[in-house]
């Protein structure tokens, strides 16, 4: 029998891994990423989308937090809500969806398309979990209107998100509601190894507290 091309060669390890933040070491590394990104935004006269300490929200026990790692270090992170209430979404709330929030990428990684990679992963993950959409709610007004609008434009043009509508949160701040269809991404496993379980840990199934 003639071996197929590449037979006997060790399998190539995907360059990225998406995994839950289960260790204190990983949570510390993500906290450092959040600090670096916040400093970068301030240095470029942009107000961070979350004005509090985002690292605290990533450490909450019930939080379903994940990060995209390359060479052992996080290059992006986000939080998942697999059963969101979707208070601002009208009729769309009846469709099963994955809500992502507090998404950050490491400064200086724009050329690598980290946001695009995390979008592709979220679409594929939502599809495998039997959901219809991936959704997010992006601040789109003062005090960081310019930066927020650029972010919305980047998500639409660079990452394939669809603008649904504008809304206001409970405090009257403008939000842009965006969604991307859950979709199997063929070949993604060669790029991103997914270590995020389709079912969250028991402590992460509790409903997110209302802020």
Structural overview:
27% of the residues lie in helices and 26% in strands. By secondary structure, the chain is an alpha+beta fold. The protein has a single domain (16-197), classed as Aminopeptidase, CATH 3.40.630. Strands 6-7-5-4-3-2-1-8 form an 8-stranded mixed sheet, with helices on both faces. The radius of gyration is 18 Å and the shape is globular. The chain starts with 15 loop residues before the first strand and ends in a 17-residue tail after the last strand.
Short description:
This protein is of the alpha+beta class and 211 residues long. Helix content is 27%, strand content 26%. It has a single domain, classed as Gcn5-related N-acetyltransferase (GNAT) (Aminopeptidase), CATH 3.40.630.30.
Rg calculated over all Cα atoms: 18 Å
Kindly report the spatial arrangement of strands forming the biggest sheet: 6-7-5-4-3-2-1-8
Instruction: Give the mean pLDDT.
Output: 85
Question: Which regions have little confidence, pLDDT < 50, spanning 5+ residues?
Answer: 1-6
Q: Roughly what percent helix?
A: 25-40%
The CATH topology is what? Aminopeptidase
How many domains in all? 1
**Major β-sheet profile:** 8 strands, mixed
Q: Could you state the order of secondary-structure elements as H and E?
A: EHHEEEHEHEEE
| Shape-level CATH architecture | 3-Layer(aba) Sandwich
What's the shape?
A: globular
Count every beta strand, where a strand is a DSSP E run of 2 or more residues.
8
* Annotation field: number of helices: 4
Beta-strand content: 25-35%
Briefly, what CATH class?
Answer: Alpha Beta
| CATH superfamily caption | Gcn5-related N-acetyltransferase (GNAT)
Assembly state of the chains shown: single chain
SS class? alpha+beta
Distance from first to last alpha carbon: 64 Å
